[in-house]
Amino acid sequence: MHDAAGHVPVLSAEALHYLNIDPAGTYVDCTAGGGGHSELIAERLTTGRLIALDRDPEAVERVRQRLAPYPAAQAICRNYAELAGALAELGIKTVEGILVDAGLSSCQLDDARRGFSLQAEGPLDMRMDATRGVSAAAWLREQTRESLMQTLRAYGDVRPARRIAETVIARAHAGRLNTTGELRQAVCDALPFVHGEPDEVRTVFQAIRIAVNDELNALRTGLTQMIDALAPGGRLAVISFHSGEDRIVKQAFRSASRVQRELFPDGRVAQTHPPRLRVLTPRPVSPSETERRANPRAHSARLRAAERLPEEGGPQ
Ligand SMILES: C[S@@+](CC[C@H](N)C(=O)[O-])C[C@H]1O[C@@H](n2cnc3c(N)ncnc32)[C@H](O)[C@@H]1O
Known about the structure:
The protein is an alpha/beta fold. It has two domains: 12-107 and 215-308, Vaccinia Virus protein VP39 (Rossmann fold); 129-212, DNA polymerase, domain 1 (Orthogonal Bundle). It has 13 helices and nine strands. The protein has a seven-stranded mixed β-sheet with strand order 3-2-1-4-5-9-8, sandwiched between helices. A two-stranded antiparallel sheet has the order 6-7. The longest helix is centred in the last third of the chain and has 15 residues, at 215-229. S-adenosylmethionine binds at residues 7, 9, 30-31, 33-37, 53-56, 59, 79-81, 101, 103-105, 128, 218. S-adenosylmethionine (SAM) binds at residues 7, 9, 30-31, 33-37, 53-56, 59, 79-81, 101, 103-105, 128, 218.
């Protein structure tokens, strides 16, 4: 399904199915991006409310324009790791549903100025919010060979991490790594025995982007706040694009769907807390064959969903 902006919201039918939209409910799209999923939610609301959030100010501006016909919708610029604060400022205590569609939007990927593109030449920036933090070029200058090796392994599953880190760090420290093309060339030069463009170009870009934006910590912190923000019966749907993200979602869901035990130092149980979530997707949901064919970017998408359980003794 193409949206009005020509982008394709990934797993949108499945996300809407699990969110099970209540037209009078309050919803948060934590990763509004191009506004595709947000619009699908907004058009299902009557007296409800949609908070469309993104950490990228350019995305928020686009989404604000796109959602202008929907008075129920409001776009705000925030990292979802700060969700609790954002909801408190808006006077919202609990919500009926939350969506996360992690990673990069096609607008970010396709815009050479942003420095995410593997093909188009641009400054090596890679920040989702270019008003904060440091660019990828500056981040690389601060790294050692060992720290970059760890990043490449942890966030990109890069096997020849040592060879690549050696070349990349030598060039970054010499001030010769300032564009996307220079990073791509450094990876290719580190693997001269590979014919054609090595797949490591993609995984090195991914790993550096995840580190520069501290994406996995944001997801860990954000998920805790999202679970807290759900009303009883409220739904959380998370679409992730690589194994590191999916593992964090799986663990957060698994831990919140079990009885929590607080222990005394000697190991005796001090207190138990009932499960807070019911997992709705025992296995992650993948895009259909049709969606994969129509949208290559959907290929690695995985959706997990869960429902908030009522507090013991609280409202049902
Ligand atoms: C895959 S896109 C979302 C596309 C969107 N669902 C649509 O239908 O157009 C991911 C978006 O999430 C944003 N994002 C990533 N991490 C974020 C975070 N921690 N907080 C807020 N936004 C984030 C990115 O800036 C990007 O715009």
